[in-house]
Amino acid sequence: MVASRLAKRLLHYGLQTYGQYYQLLNSGRHPHEFQLMVNILTTNETYFFREPKHFEFLQDQIIKSWRGDNFRLWSAASSTGEESYSIGMTLAEGLGMRKWEVFGSDVNTEVVATAQRGVYLMDRLDNMEKRYLDKYCLKGVRSQDGYFRVDEKIRSRISFDQINLKTTLPRNLGQFDVIFLRNVLIYFDTETKQDIVQRVISALKPGGYFFISHSETLHSIKTELSMVTPSIYKKPCK
Question: Is 50 in the active site?
Fold first, then answer.
C-alpha cells in the first residue's frame, strides 16, 4: 500500500528507489513534501453517524444530564468532517441554544480543508436520519445538484485544524467534556497507542468521556480511565 501510494511521487521527482525519496524528504530542499506524503498515506474512511450507538450514548447518557456552561467535544481524528458534523447535529438536538462547540482535527491537511467547507455528496447520507437532513443540511441545486452543505447554524460552532497526535498538543487546545478518538489506534503498535492515548486524554476534563471505535480496545493500554461500556471510557472525577 505504501509503495503504491508513493509511486507517483517517485515518478514526479524522477527517482528510482524509495530510499532516494526518503533522502529527499530529509534533505530539506522540499519542505512541503513531507506533509504531502502524510496526506497521501493517511486513510480517511468515514461517513455520517458511523457507529450510531455512540451518538445514542452521547445524546441519552451525557447530554441529557449535562449542567455546565459550555460543552466542548474534540473529534481527534475527524478526517473529512462527517464525524464532527454528526456530533454537532447531535449536540444541537440535545443542547439547542445552550453553549456548545466541537473541534475537529486531523494530521491530513487536505481532509481538514474538506471538513472546513462542509460540502458533501448526497450519497454520504446512508446513516443520517431524514430529520437531520431536513433540519441541518442545505441541498444543492443546478450545478451543485447531488451535493449538500451543512447549515451555518451547525458550522458556526465547529472548527477544524491540523494536529499530529504523535506530537505535543497545542497549548491553546483547552479541556474537553468528551473526546472521540475512533478508528485511529488500530494503525499503531502498543507503545505508540499508549503514547497517543495518554497525550489525548490529558485534554479530557475530570469526569469526561473518551470514545474509541467498537473495533478497538484499551486492553493493553495503562490509563486512569474506567470502562463504562465497551469502547466508551470515563476519566475519574477529582
Answer: no
pLDDT digits (tens, 9 = 90+) for 213-227: 998 989 889 999 999
Q: Is 106 one of the catalytic residues?
A: yes
Q: Which of 5, 60, 117, 131 is catalytic?
A: 5
pLDDT digits (tens, 9 = 90+) for 32-64: 888 888 877 776 667 889 999 999 999 999 999
Domains of the chain: 2-41 (no CATH), 52-234 (3.40.50.150)
Q: Which is catalytic among the residues 72, 106, 155, 177?
A: 106
Strands 119-121 and 147-150: antiparallel
Q: Strands 100-106 and 119-121, how do they pair?
A: unpaired
Q: Are 196 and 184 in contact (CB under 8 A)?
A: yes
pLDDT for 45 equals: 67
